[in-house]
Amino acid sequence: MLSGVLFALVDLETTGGQPAHDEIMEVAVRLVGDNVDASWQSLLDPRCAVPSFIQGLTGISPSILKGKPTFNAVQAELWTYLDNAVLVAHNARFDSGFLRINYSRVGREYQPRVLCTLKLARVLYPDWPKHGLEAICHRIGFYSEVHHRAMADVDAMKAFLDYARADRGEAVFNFEVGLQLGLPVLPPSISQKDIDAIPCQPGIYRLLGQAGELLYLGSAESLQDQVLSHFSNSTRDSKATKLARRVCGVQWQMLSGALSAGLYLSRALRAEQPEMQRRTKATGKPCCVRFIEGDSGGMQLRLRSGLPANITKTQESLAVFRDRKHAKTRIAALAAESDVCLVQLGVLGDGASCECSACNISGGMTVSMQERAGVELADFNVRAKAAFAAYLYVAWPFDEPVLIYEQNESGFGEWHLIYDWRHYGSFSWDANLQRLSERAKSEADVPVPIDLQEARLRCEQVNDFQYEHYRLLRGFIDNLECLPLSEFAASKAQ
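-> structure tokens emitted (494 positions)
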């Protein structure tokens, strides 16, 4: 079992299957861990009738239970085995439910980490036709004179755990146990040495399958922490668990910072196709939202594809979104947050309803701005504009291309060539040659250094506007060193 973790193997025999109505009539626990192996069991007086079906299944009759202690009488002793231990049970939801309710009755909160041996058996041996405890015992050759008694079933669980650890190997066994418990355990094909080699620095990483296929591509401010996160806390996320089970290798590339990681990831996701990741859409036009004056004088929205070519000259106020679907989703959410009427904005879809206060007052009937008592047109326009302030397009704040510098804690730095929110490459600066050297995009790529004039000419080739890059750059441009191309050489000479 996992080193440093204490496991309490538990089985209960009860008067029925409903924790809120039925009672515990037998409990057994075996404590297993580093240099620990202790057990305890007791029959309990359920203080209620025992159905004949349960008597036949377990062999426990009312006469056997007569004079036995109640759960309240043994709960303190049982707690010494359960406290700070992982609860291990076959169909653990059943046992944990009964223990949680019974302990709540005596004022204790029981919320343990849980390892279900039924789930573990299904994962480790998916080809077995049945995974009940009796079927497992038959499969592994473990025989007991009694069944459906608490300690006998605890011994059967321990036998299965020992068998699985030996049969599948320590690495595979501990990995699956760790996944259930949300512990940071490594896939069998990845060693701690592999993880230690990954820097706690910004960059991008690739999770690879057994044949080297790309499963997942991501970015991180700390590569090591982000890679490890894929192998923990995935018990409630089936996609994360499936990914963790398939990972056999990790590739990583350290970069200069979070901006660099975002720029590289955006490009890589469009060029590569990770199997277990939502496919990134091909580069397309963003969705812009124009603010116009409606017939009533109130502000309305109009959606259009792409940025207007003359937006810098006209300085028109626009909100910009990733695509039309993103725009519609965010408009509805932002309007609801600011109590702005979708009807008045002119964007209420067919069959949809507006939940603003004005529409609620009118019973959902469409009414004009003038008909809405207490609603001032000017106030509506101000609130509507404010609702979309975070998405308003900000004009490029320089008259020319700039180089934005980013450096990580290890001293590795890059200059990002940016113009009009477009990314034209990331470079290192060779002061001796007075040239920018672009980082290789692949092992086969041999980049050609360029001088500052060539960098300026590159920026004259208008790239498509990418919403992801725009949002990234908006978040970093005020916090990183930005040098216009015309000032760069002189600055570096100082």
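The chain is about 35% helix and 20% strand.
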